[in-house]
Amino acid sequence: MKSKASISRILKTLDKLYPFDGVCFLNYEKPWQLLFATILSAQCTDERVNQVTAKLFVDYPSLEAFAAANISDLEKAVHPTGFFRAKARHLQTSALKLLNDHAGEVPSEIESLTALSGVGRKTANVVRGHIFKIPSIVVDTHVKRVSNRLGLANHSDPEKIEFQLMEILPRKYWIQYNQQVITHGRQVCASRSPRCDECELQKDCAERNKKS
After folding, report:
1. C-alpha of 156 from chain center
2. pLDDT tens digits for 76-91?
3. 3-state DSSP call for residue 212?
4. How far apart are CA 21 and CA 176, in angstroms?
5. Is the pLDDT at 23 greater than 90, yes or no?
6. In contact, 135 and 141? CB cutoff 8 Å
7. What is the 3-state secondary structure (H, E, C) of 117-180?
8. What's the predicted TM-score (pTM) here?
């Protein structure tokens, strides 16, 4: 794994390239809206989710509205995000559980969050980081790809990558690392045709050094 000096350089470079502003890529006003938007973001872009939730959260303005929704209508509403039948079911089931077990409040404990329908560690950590400001590492496709390429992780399983990053990254960087690496993955370190010659992390990129 990376040396402390290399990790420090990577974090300082990310801070320089992508100053952390704490803004979430998904639009929301209430904690449960972020939870539901993140459920919808599975295998879907944040941009598409934001387009869908702009109308969805008007048509269904409360957990009670989701709980009472006609499932066919809800499926149509979330159809553009893909896997619409499963996602509609997840939203309705989670709304019911939040109302029945948590008095309509989104819990902060990861065990309670992952007990909700359609919520894994990634979704739970998005909520914990943005709503409760609890240091959490979110491993999406960008974080997985970039972390492995940099040599900060060496696994294909998101949960194992999460724990690898938690072990080597200072806790105070966990939330901003998520946002910075997602941005870097979108703008520079793409899955196909990464812009390696323009990347300011070249020196500490394990993937590039392996090829050279």
Report:
1. 16
2. 999 999 999 999 999 9
3. coil
4. 8
5. no
6. no
7. CCCCHHHHHHHHHHCCCCCCCCCCHHHHHHHHHHCCCCCCCHHHHHHHHHHHCCHHHHHHHHHH
8. 0.92
Q: Would you mind telling me the total number of residues written for the chain in this entry?
A: 212
Residues of the chain with CATH 1.10.340.30: 31-130
Q: Given the structure tokens 């149509």, which residue do they identify?
A: 76
Joined tokens for residue 84: 């619409």
The fold adopted by the segment(s) 4-21+137-211 is Endonuclease Iii, domain 2 (1.10.1670)
Q: Where in the chain is the domain with CATH 1.10.1670.10?
A: 4-21+137-211
Domain 31-130 has CATH 1.10.340.30: yes
Q: Helices (H), strands (E): how many in the chain? A: 12, 0
How many percent of the chain have pLDDT more than 90? 93
Extract the tokens encoding 73: 């209508």
In angstroms, rounded to a whole number, what is the distance separating the alpha carbons of residues 134 and 152?
22
Q: Which residues are catalytic?
A: 122, 140
| Ramachandran angles phi, psi of 179, nearest 5° | -65, -45
User: Among residues 25, 2, 34, 14, which one has the least CA distance to residue 200?
Assistant: 14
pLDDT digit string, tens, across residues 26-37: 999 999 999 999
